[in-house]
Amino acid sequence: MLRTRHALAAACFLLSAGLAHAQQVTAMIAVEPTSKKDSLAVVTAIVESALSKATGKVAKVSINEDLTDVMRATRTGEVDIYIAPPQVAASALSRGYELIGSTNPMEQYVLVTRRDSSTVSALGGRRLYLPQQDSVYSYVARGMLNAAGLSFQNLQVEFARWPSAGLIAVDMGVFDATVVRQTEWDDWVKSRGRALHAVSTSIPVPGGLSVVVRKTLPEKSREKLARWFATNATSSGLKAVTERPDMSMYKAVAELGYFTPNSLPGAEVVTAADVRRLVAEGAVIVDTRSEKEYKAKRIPQAVFVPYHEKSLKDVAFDFAKDDFRDLAKLDKEKPTIFSCNGAECWKSYKASKAAVAAGFKKVYWFRGGLPEWEGTGLQVAQN
């Protein structure tokens, strides 16, 4: 009898825990690291209270300055609501989220150099200061360089932490160029003159932070969320969402980002249907993502061989900066498929290229990765 009561109590606990989890809504505020005077002072408790009232669920809000991790989260669908820069919103919008709006009007960025570089093309081999690889600064920088026929591989790029430090670094001669917001550049010119100069201006992109919500949230909840962000968000320290950029502007931002190429010499690019057939025929499918992602959701029969990357997300990446030592554990004689989180994820591209260089007999690159697999209705495995 005692065992029965214990079993019932345990079952009730597990059921209540499951319901509590099901009744939770998560939000992430993603921001660029910045100086204390410019930092975003958000009272998360106020945001959580508002989101709870709008959705009828327990809200959990986090703040994240690691934009690479934030972009990863958009690809795996870990969060219900993003309050984030436009490149993050753009990634989420392509994965089942809808736009509420942005906090600022459209804005542009400028590529600023020292006076001895009069054009973008003259920056070949020069030193470029940028924040994180997945910052909006880096996205627009890549767009401006590409327009001039350059890539990050043509410059000495250093990814630092503080966007605001770029102008000072160039002014001091430590770097040759950086990217800043047009407004930041205007303020610099007013206070310090034109010892530096702008050689290129980016396309307009949604300004400030954009808010996107998961489409699976009930329509009434999404409407309540939109009203709160438009009228009461300032009570928490956030700016009000007053702008509604055209969706094409987010697509333009995404296209500035780090999409992998469509082909890879020495490897065959395959679809989800191809992967299913190849695995049935005995091919090995390798999941190159993080252990956390692998355990949460993966393609059935995928083996975990993580690719740890620090190199540029570029076709000319430096393999020596990365760690893929576990490649040696795979059988070179077996047909091998490498996969990760879709076209924006470079791990499977780099892993495939490494396998080709290591002499694997047959290399397949599943560029669409897990998002394509799920998108075609195929089953996933979970721990």
Give your account of this protein's structure:
This protein has 13 helices and 15 strands. The radius of gyration is 23 Å and the shape is flat. The strands form three sheets. Strands 2-1-3-10-4 form a five-stranded mixed β-sheet, sandwiched between helices. Strands 7-6-8-5-9 form a five-stranded mixed β-sheet. It has a five-stranded parallel β-sheet with strand order 11-15-14-12-13, with helices on both faces. By secondary structure, it is an alpha/beta fold.
Q: Mean pLDDT, nearest integer?
A: 89
Tally of contiguous helical segments: 13
Structural class: alpha/beta
Give the overall silhouette. Answer: flat
- What is the beta-strand fraction? 15-25%
Using the CA coordinates, give the radius of gyration.
23 Å
SSE succession: HEHEHEHEEEHEHEHEEHHEHEHEEHEH
Query: Helix proportion of residues, in percent?
Result: 25-40%
Low-confidence stretches: 1-21
Q: What kind of sheet is the major sheet?
A: 5 strands, mixed
